[in-house]
Amino acid sequence: MNLLEMWNAMGWFAKGIAYVLFFMSMLSFGVAIERIYTYVQARKQSKLFAPQVAKALKEGRLKDAIALAGKKEYRYSHLAKVVLAALQEYQYSQEGGEKMSKEDTVDTVRRAIQRASALTGSDLKKMVSALATIGATAPFVGLLGTVVGVINAFQGIASTGSGGIGAVSAGIAEALVETALGLLVAIPAVWFYNYLTGRIDYFNVEMDNSSSEMVDFFIKKS
C-alpha cells in the first residue's frame, strides 16, 4: 500500500490525529521562522546600535543617545531597549523636581535596567516554550494514533474470524504511520527549541554586559 491508499483506509480517529500532528508541525515551523527572523534582526541592529550610542555618550550627548535608542530602525535590538530604559530613568532623575543623591540615582537606574532586561528577555522567549511542548508531546500523540490503529486491526480480525500476519500487516502499517508522523513533528521542534534557547542565553549575556557598562557609566557621570 502506498501513502495515499493508507490515508484512504484510515478511520476518522486516525485522520484526526494526523490533522493534529500537521497543525503542530505548521505551528512549530511558524514559531521557529518568526523567532529566527527576530533574533537575526536583533543581532544585526544591536551591532549597529552599540558603537553609535557609545559615541554619543562619550561626547555627553544624552538626548541624542535617547533619540537614537528610540528609533524604529532599532526596534528589534535588545540592547537598545535596555539602554533606552536606563537613559530615560537617568534623565528623569536629573531633570525632575526632586534632587537625588549619587547613590539613589545609580540605584534607580539599576532597577530600571533590571526591569527592562526582564521584559526584553520575556519578549525574546515568546512562543519558544511552544516548541518544547510540541517536541515533548508529538511522539505521544502519534503513539495514540498507533495504539488505536492496532486495536482496530485486531478488531477486524475478530469480526472476520481470519488470522495470520497477512490479515493484520496492512492495519499495523497504517497505524505505524502515525508514530512516524509524530517523530517527524517532534524532531525538528526539539532542534529549533535547542537552537533558539542558545540564542536567548547569548542575548541575556549581552544584556547583562551592557547593563554593567551602563551602571559604570552613570557612576562615573554622577
**What count of domains describes the coordinates?**
1
Number of strands: 0
Major sheet size, sense and barrel closure:
none
Termini Cα gap: 77 Å
Q: How much helix is in the residues?
A: over 70%
Assembly annotation: single chain
Q: Could you report the average pLDDT, rounded to the nearest whole number?
A: 85
Walkthrough of the structure:
This protein has 222 residues and is mostly helical. The protein has helices at 3-9, 12-58, 62-69, 78-95, 102-124, 128-160, 165-221. The chain is rod-shaped, with a radius of gyration of 28 Å. The N and C termini lie far apart (77 Å). The model has no long low-confidence stretch (mean pLDDT 85).
Summarize the structure.
This protein is mainly α. The chain is 87% helix and 0% strand.
Task: Give short descriptive properties of this protein.
222 residues; mainly alpha; 7 helices
Secondary-structure blueprint of this entry?
Blueprint: H1 3-9, H2 12-58, H3 62-69, H4 78-95, H5 102-124, H6 128-160, H7 165-221
